[in-house]
Design goal:
Order of helices and strands: EEHEEHHEEHEHEEEEHEHEEEH
Structural class: alpha+beta
Number of helices: 8
Shape: globular
Distance between the termini: 46 Å
Number of strands: 15
Helix content: 25-40%
Largest sheet: 9 strands, mixed
Bound molecules: pyridoxal-5'-phosphate
Strand content: 25-35%
C-alpha cells in the first residue's frame, strides 16, 4: 500500500496528473527513512532534513511533524515487512506548465514503503568496488531534491564498470558518493568532509560521527583531498538503506589491504548494536562516555 494525498491505496491504483511539477520540472524534495521492527529510525532527524529541503526550495511543509508521524505509522502498519524503507516525496503540485511557482496549488504528497533488505553479508565480508567521478552537480546538494539526473548518471557510470558507487570529487576534494556519504580512514583517523552545500547531510553520516565520538574512535571533520582518498587505508560509504559498507576497490585499485579494515568492523558492529538499542526504546541520542 502507498499513501497519496491523504489516501492509502495499492500502488497500481495511484495516479498523478501529467502536469505535476515533480514530473514536469523535478520540482520537489524527498526523504528515505529506514524502519526497523516497524519503528522509523531517527524520524525527528529525517523530518528536520525534510524541512530544510522544503525551505531550500521555498515550499511550505504540508504537514506538522505529528501529522507526518501519524501518516507514517499507518503506512508502516499496512505494509507487510518488519523492516521497511519508506520513500516520502513532496512536489509543488499540479499546475499549467510555467517555471514560476503556481499560486494556490496544493503540494503532492506521495509515500511508499518497500521491504528493507540489509546489505548481504558476503558483500560486507569482501567490501565493494567504487569508481571515481567528477562532481558535476549543482551547488545545493544539501537539498534532497527529486531532480536526481546527475546522481543517476554518476551512479550508472559505476554500474557500467561493475562497481557499486561513484565517489565524487570537486576541485580536488571529495564531496560524497552518488547516493551515499563517504568516509576515509588514514593513519588510524576517520576523516569526514564537513557538512556544507556540496553534500547531503546524511542521517547515517551523523550516526557514524556520534558513534566515533562516543567510543573514542579518532576522527576529524575536515575537507578530505583526492590524494587522501586515493591513498586511504579504508574507505566507507554510508546511507540509510546500505548502513555502513566498506569500499575495498577504487578505480580497480585495492584500498589499503584490499579487504574491510578494522575501523569499518568496529563501526559496523557499533551501528548494529546502536540500532538494536534504539529499537528496544533505548537512548535515541548517543552520549559521550565520560
Ligand atoms: C547523494 C546522497 N548523499 C548521501 C546520502 C546518505 O544519506 P542518509 O544517510 O540520510 O541516507 C544519500 C542517501 O541516499 C544520497 O542520495
Amino acid at each position: 500500500m502507498i499513501y497519496l494525498n491523504g489516501k492509502f491505496m495499492p500502488i497500481e491504483d495511484a495516479r498523478i496528473p501529467v502536469l505535476d511539477r515533480g514530473f514536469i520540472f523535478g520540482d520537489g524534495v524527498y526523504e528515505v527513512i529506514p524502519v526497523y521492527s516497524r519503528k522509523p529510525f531517527r524520524l525527528p532527524e529525517h523530518l528536520q532534513r525534510l524541512q530544510h529541503s522544503l525551505d531550500g526550495i521555498r515550499l511550505k511543509n504540508p504537514h506538522s511533524n505529528s501529522e507526518w508521524s501519524a501518516i507514517l505509522r499507518q503506512l508502516i502498519e499496512v505494509n507487510d515487512s518488519e523492516d521497511q524503507s519508506v520513500y516520502l516525496h513532496v512536489t509543488r503540485g499540479v499546475a499549467r506548465r510555467d517555471h514560476a511557482f503556481p499560486k494556490g496549488a496544493p503540494p503532492t504528497v506521495f509515500i511508499m514503503s518497500n521491504p528493507l533488505l540489509a546489505p548481504p553479508q558476503e558483500l560486507l565480508a569482501t567490501g565493494v568496488a567504487a569508481i571515481s567521478g567528477i562532481d558535476n552537480r549543482w551547488l545545493r546538494c544539501d537539498i534532497k531534491a527529486i531532480s536526481l539526473l546527475p546522481n543517476v548518471l554518476l551512479r550508472q557510470m559505476a554500474i557500467d564498470s561493475g562497481a557499486m558507487e561513484t565517489v565524487l570529487f570537486r576541485d580536488g576534494f571529495m564531496t560524497e558518493g552518488a547516493a551515499s556519504n563517504i568516509f576515509v580512514v588514514k593513519n588510524e583517523t576517520l576523516l569526514a568532509p564537513p557538512k556544507n552545500n556540496l553534500m547531503l547531510p546524511g542521517i547515517t553520516y551523523d550516526v557514524v560521527l556520534e558513534l566515533a565520538e562516543a567510543h573514542r574512535i579518532r576522527h576529524e571533520v575536515r575537507a578530505v583531498s583526492e590524494y587522501e582518498v586515493r591513498t586511504a587505508d579504508e574507505i566507507l560509504l554510508t546511507s540509510s538503506t546500505r548502513e555502513i559498507m566498506p569500499i575495498t576497490l577504487l578505480d580497480g585499485k585495492p584500498v589499503g589491504k584490499g579487504s574491510p579494515g578494522v575501523v569499518f568492523e568496529v563501526l559496523y558492529s557499533l551501528y548494529q548494536e546502536y540500532k538494536l538499542t534504539v529499537m528496544r526504546g533505548g537512548e535515541a541520542k548517543l552520549k559521550v562516555e565520560s
